[in-house]
Amino acid sequence: MADSLNIVVLAGGISHERDVSLRSGRRAADALSAAGHSVTLRDPDASLLPFLTETRPDVVFLALHGSSGEDGALIDLLEAAGIPFVGSPSEAARLAWSKPVAASLVRRAGLAVPEQIVLSHEAFRELGAASVLRVVADSFDGDVVIKPGSGGSAQGVSIVSDDGSLPRAMVDAFTYSDVAIIEQRIVGTEIAVAIIEVDGEPITLPAVEIEPVSGVYSFEARYNAGETTFYAPSRLSDEDAARASDAALAVHSLLGLRDLSRVDFIVDDEGVPWFLEVNVLPGLTETSSLPLALDADSRSAAEVYSALANAAAARKAR
């Protein structure tokens, strides 16, 4: 076993995903403690930076969701303070945090990305909501997905089947971000592919197939027991699963991610994985796909999180 580390797990924050982050943080802290580390669970509040600079923990383990930890700002400060952490560098986090930016980079790399229109709240107001929505309605055939330009846990996401529902869906998206994405809905099998780095090399875990009881993978479906059936590993064919795995690794590398990530896809009837979004700090709750994938791969969360923490400490030592 590696040496015991002094680890600070950061969870909570003031984002819309605070409660989910707290659940992730508690499970991460329990797993790291089980691996023999000394763990402190902290909220990123005004006392955090003085605490970190005074105590100089061996590693910070980020279990933050939403802008509290995924937009790159806090990571920038950790890097500036020379405090090692588990997670992606700040530049990579910023690229992934902006869903339109990530989608553009992934599309330019040749991967399948749904057709999109990206609108700022300012443009939506200045150009006139009615006129904008008329163009949107005429631009897509079939259902569309409207979602915030940043954030996670499906907050502010709507599936729209008729033009009359567009205004409400736009309002919901703008509640969570100043940018909204209108995206062609891809019909198929929804999967999440988690990536962990082992000895510095990224590997994919078995894809987790997501089948919500309601048909929509909403916030409630993600975190309430019984609302979603998860298949880990997925029921995809070996060929389709391999194609999704390769696409996830390409996204992880393209954006410069590190340690762990999760890439979400819809796999259509032809086996094409359509990129939806990437998460640099995946959920670690009991219903989150990364822990489910670890179980499917017969890997212990305690061992994996501990190995990631030790790798982060080694980066600092170098």
Automatic annotation (TrEMBL):
EC number in record: 6.3.2.4
Every ATP-grasp domain range: 103-310
GO MF: ATP binding; D-alanine-D-alanine ligase activity; metal ion binding
Keywords: ATP-binding, Cell wall biogenesis/degradation, Ligase, Nucleotide-binding
Gene Ontology biological process terms in this record: cell wall organization
Keyword Nucleotide-binding among UniProt keywords: yes
Matches recorded under Gene3D superfamilies: 3.40.50.20, ATP-grasp fold, A domain, ATP-grasp fold, B domain
Position of the signal peptide: none
Enzyme's top EC category: ligase
Family indicated by similarity: Belongs to the D-alanine--D-alanine ligase family.
Protein name per UniProt: ATP-grasp domain-containing protein
Source lineage: Bacteria, Bacillati, Actinomycetota, Actinomycetes, Micrococcales
